[in-house]
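User: I'm putting together notes for a lab meeting next week and I want to include a structural view of one of the chains we've been expressing. I don't have a solved structure, so I'd like a prediction I can at least talk through. The sequence is below, exactly as it appears in our construct file.
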Amino acid sequence: MSSHCERSTCKECGGASICQHQRIRRRCKECREASICQHQRIRRKCKECREASICPHQRIRSTCKECGGAGLCQHQRIRSTCKECGGAGLCPHQRQRSKCKECGGVCPHQRIRRRCKQCREEADKSMPDGLEELGAST
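Assistant: Thanks for the context. Below is the predicted structure for the 138-residue chain, given as structure tokens.
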């Protein structure tokens, strides 16, 4: 394993994030094909397909208050981010983990890390050989 790659995305190490097509799993169109509906949306969120995850109120069933969604806590908030319940999506600073500067959710460019274009471009440049072309497919 080269010293600059992440273990999960390393082909040589058989990283868990590498799919059967030798691509980063979340970026592989062939692997994600089953989760995309005929309307080119994520199948579980498509209201037109009326999948089981959409309730009669046209909301995501797990977070619909009227349906008593399983993703809601006793305070009628999204369970993972409820401060009173100690949701798993909260960091030790009682902030959303993905948005906390101290926990690494905010990048050096002062943006939410997963949305920062500069960080993604830098990550694509540092990918192991053979994986660079996948950055353009998203």
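A couple of points you could mention at the meeting. Residues 1-35 form one domain. Residues 131-138 have pLDDT under 50 and may be disordered.

User: Perfect, that's what I needed.
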